[in-house]
Amino acid sequence: MPELPEVETTLRGITPYLLNKKIKAITVRQPQLRWLVPDDIHAAENQKILRLERRGKYIIASTGIGSIIMHLGMSGSLRIADPKFADPKYEIRKHDHVMFELSGSKSMIYHDPRRFGSILWTREPAEQHPLLAALGPEPLSDEFTGNYLFQQSRKKKVAVKNFIMNSHVVVGVGNIYASEALFRAGIRPGKAAGRVTAAAYGLLATEIKSVLTAAIKSGGTTLRDFVNSEGEPGYFQQTLNVYGREGEPCRQCGRIIKQRTIGQRSTFFCSHCQS
DNA sequence: AGAGGTACCTGGCAGC
DNA sequence: TGCTGCCAGGTACCTC
Asked: Which domains, ranges and CATH numbers included, belong to chain A?
């Protein structure tokens, strides 16, 4: 589920229930996630959440003494539960790994079948955490431009799709939107990053921004019940041009969309519209 | 330094 | 119905 737009949607969904609320208790049912949930996560108990933000696909909830860093991995979600999980009426679902009991009688549940995500705790400013410190710019920031991509990619032989999915280059471009943005920009995903022109990168940066912005907007339409559900896989599916459309006609030229594995990830493109 | 592959984990689905 | 194999939205880390 979670590409950047879904993480952003999740953040917006949980914010009203978390911001300026006190964490009354934290229950860890399964600490063995992508990284072990640290014991000292309990230091966040009785702390008020003063700030909520997103960095790439990480969600950061900061208290006065440290920050909770959350990542949803491939299959993670956060949902707001009511009544609080300590209530016997509360239904614990399989793969509910971490629960936060909040002031205001709500709880936030971290659910993640594949356990590729994690929940961490740091007393340092979150941006100094090893996982966050070396991240590239936000794709929706002014810092992220075609010129930036062009400069970063010189002499790089890696496929341009892998290049834009590298979080040290730019954060938040996942497998779906990498294919989509490259289609919109007319660039073959397997092309060496160092051989893409400055003009093409200008277009690519623009399309990355626009496809992510559009997806966040469409995530907004399901915002109301997002945190109560498991998320809405496919709610933006009608707007996808290439992802998952192998064998179907290109919406632009009518030729058949192709699928190829690049960097061990499924990749979709139109060999006529992309060069 | 850079490129490429591996690992983590569960569930859903196609095919037999 | 049940088994097997393959695929899945992420990304740090290991090896060459």
From this structure: 4-128 (3.20.190.10), 146-269 (1.10.8.50)
